[in-house]
Amino acid sequence: MQMNSSQTTVFTNIPETLLTKILNNTNSLPDLAQYCLVCKSWNGLTKPLLRSRYAAKISDIPGAITNIIYYTDSVADLAKLRLVCKSWNAIAEPLMFRGRIKIKSSYAALALYGHLYKQPSYGKFIKYLHFDDDYIPMTIQRGLLNLSFTPNMERITGEIDDDDFYLMMNSIADKSRDKFDKLEAIPHPSYYSVVYNLTLLNFKSTLQEIIYSLRDESDEEFSPGWDFSSKFESFVNLVKLELEADLEAVFDLEGTLIGCSRLQELTLKAHFNDKVHVKSEVEAWAPSNVKIVDTVRKLVIARECRSDLLEYLLFKYPNTSTIDIDAARPLITANNNLHRTLNAIKTVRYHKVKIAVNTGNLIESLRFLIADGIRFRLNEDKETETVCIEISNLL
């Protein structure tokens, strides 16, 4: 918080006895460090207090203070500590880079780039870098990657539609003497990319999370020349998958998911071109064609939700305890689809559901919901002429 001159005068006019009492009752090391910076009189009272508490000069950095600085997780507190003196800065400043760094704007990206350019050795401290949705020039993204992508990196996340970015990742890793054996997640493009596929394979032994799209740049359906889904089995640590795809039939999904045998969470953003299969057809097909995975605990479904999809997924992942559905495509209410959809959802312990129905089907849907005793909320979207039905038993 910035203070103007009048505010500073008020603070410096506090009686010394009262100020001493305030300081003596302050147990927070970061707060004491900040008090040193208010003015000369505060600094004169606070520094001796710090010295007496830690039995050494601040610039000597006793082991106790070093440990306090090292185990401080708050970036804001580290920023205060580094301002006390040069010795504290030498410890605190590099540690500011070890937490999650979220790049929210081009300005923030440039600021971080400038800092790392001046102190390139700090790049090795960065473990988690996230690029937010705001537009950031590709040259800056690549510049940050060049300065921060080291074998200590654990996660780089966000949406990056730049093949050169992924080529640079591969190049840095290939030239490194040390293995990138800590990398759990990398950014993803919004569309299908062969270069991204190659990058995934380059880090397949460590990646725990993958976001994968089977859509092209024009957001249209297409058939990729490389069926990457056959490679999922080689990702031995993959526990979280987000898949976006347009498929001919619900049953085609098994061919993509069959290799993901260690998943704990699946997010599915899919559209299917076939009709909704009757329940007896799902029950006849699943036992001999579906590989059951008992490690999945959470399912997230977006874009489109339908009863045969839920029945298939809950057969494949029988230990699912949480399901989160937010489907923008209106639910088909014909052929008992709504009834089957809700029956499938109710078998999951925790559920949070948003499904859209066309206004013409609303009365029929409400009759069923009320008759079944389901508690729900309605939100109308006049532009799309749909009504969103919300059902949840999550707190």
Question: How would the blueprint of this fold be written?
Answer:
Blueprint: H1 5-12, H2 16-24, H3 29-35, H4 40-54, H5 63-70, H6 75-81, H7 86-95, E1 100-103, H8 106-118, E2 128-131, H9 138-148, E3 155-157, H10 163-175, H11 194-202, E4 209-213, E5 240-247, H12 253-257, E6 265-272, H13 279-289, E7 298-303, H14 307-316, E8 322-327, H15 337-346, E9 350-358, H16 362-371, E10 377-381, E11 386-392
Helix pairs in contact: 2-4, 3-4, 3-6, 6-7, 8-9, 9-10, 10-11, 13-14, 14-15
Please explain how this structure is put together.
The chain is an alpha/beta fold and 395 residues long. It has three domains: 5-95, no CATH class; 98-222 and 231-238, no CATH class; 258-278 and 291-395, no CATH class. Helices cover 39% and strands 16% of the residues. It is built from 16 helices and eleven strands. The strands form two sheets. The chain has an eight-stranded mixed beta sheet with strand order 4-5-6-7-8-9-11-10, with no helix packed on it. Strands 1-2-3 form a three-stranded parallel beta sheet. Helix 2 runs parallel beside helix 4, helix 9 (138-148) runs parallel beside helix 10 and helix 10 runs parallel beside helix 11 (194-202). The model is unreliable at 1-11, 54-62 and 68-72 (pLDDT under 50).
